[in-house]
Write a sequence for this structure.
C-alpha cells in the first residue's frame, strides 16, 4: 500500500502582488509596487535597502498594523485582507511578536512585567507565565535585572528585553526592525543565537529589516528593496586577475 502523502504546511507569511501608496498632501508616494514574498517555518529573512525603499511598509503590513491597497497577504494560510479590526488584533496578539528599534517598553513596568505582559494579555496561567518569563530572561542574560525598570538599563539591555518580550509567547512570526542595532558584538551574538534557537524549537519565522552585517550573515535569505520593489538577484562582479 502506497504511503499517504502529507500536504506541505502553508507558509507562515505570504505576500502576492502587494501594492501600498501613501498620500503626503497632494503627492502620492508608491511605497510598494507589486511585492511577492514567502516566509516559511523556522526561516530568517532579512530585508535590506536604503531608507524609503519599503522595508518598514512590509513590516507594518505583515504585522497587521496597516493594510495593503492591492494584492493578497496570508498569515499561517489565512487571508488577512478582509479581517475586521478585532480579528486582526486577536491574530496579532496570538501569532506575532514585535521587536522595535525604539524598544517600545512600558516605562513604569519592571523588566519582568514587560516580558510577562504579552502572556498576561493572552490569558496564560500565572505559574506558566512565571516559568516562561524567568527562562527567557535567563536566556537573554537579564535574570539579575528582572526587578529593574527600563530607565535603569543600557540601550543594549533594553533591546534584549524587547527581544525577550517578542519571543516569550512563542509566536509563529517575529517582526524585527534593526533588532541588533543597539547591541555590542557579544550581546548581538547571544540574541541571534536565541532567535535561531526559538525559530527551530517553536517553528517561528523571522522577518527582519536590518543593515547589520552580523545579522545578515546569519539569515537564511536576503531580499534587497529599492523604490518599493524587490531587486533581482545580482551576480557578483568578476574580480580581474593580474596577468
Amino acid at each position: 500500500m502506497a504511503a499517504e502523502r502529507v500536504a506541505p504546511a502553508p507558509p507562515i507569511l505570504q505576500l502576492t502582488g502587494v501594492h501600498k501608496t501613501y498620500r503626503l498632501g497632494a503627492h502620492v508616494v508608491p511605497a510598494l509596487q507589486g511585492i511577492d514574498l514567502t516566509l516559511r517555518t523556522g526561516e530568517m529573512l532579512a530585508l535590506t535597502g536604503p531608507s524609503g525603499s519599503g522595508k518598514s511598509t512590509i513590516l507594518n503590513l505583515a504585522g497587521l498594523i496597516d493594510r495593503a491597497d492591492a494584492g493578497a497577504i496570508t498569515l499561517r494560510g489565512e487571508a488577512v485582507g478582509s479581517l475586521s479590526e478585532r480579528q486582526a488584533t486577536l491574530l496579532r496578539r496570538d501569532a506575532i511578536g514585535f521587536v522595535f528599534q525604539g524598544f517600545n517598553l512600558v516605562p513604569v513596568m519592571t523588566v519582568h512585567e514587560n516580558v510577562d505582559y504579552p502572556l498576561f494579555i493572552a490569558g496564560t496561567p500565572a505559574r506558566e507565565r512565571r516559568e516562561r518569563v524567568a527562562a527567557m530572561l535567563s536566556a537573554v542574560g537579564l535574570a539579575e535585572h528582572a526587578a529593574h525598570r527600563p530607565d535603569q538599563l543600557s540601550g543594549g539591555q533594553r533591546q534584549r528585553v524587547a527581544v525577550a518580550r517578542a519571543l516569550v509567547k512563542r509566536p509563529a512570526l517575529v517582526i524585527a526592525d534593526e533588532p541588533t542595532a543597539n547591541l555590542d558584538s557579544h550581546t548581538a551574538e547571544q540574541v541571534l543565537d536565541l532567535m535561531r534557537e526559538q525559530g527551530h524549537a517553536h517553528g517561528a519565522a523571522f522577518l527582519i529589516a536590518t543593515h547589520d552585517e552580523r545579522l545578515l550573515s546569519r539569515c537564511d535569505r536576503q531580499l534587497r528593496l529599492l523604490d518599493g520593489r524587490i531587486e533581482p538577484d545580482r551576480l557578483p562582479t568578476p574580480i580581474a586577475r593580474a596577468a
The domain at 43-66+83-227 is CATH 3.40.50.300 (Rossmann fold). The longest strand covers residues 27-39. The first helix runs from residue 55 to 62. Residues 234-243 have pLDDT under 50 and may be disordered.
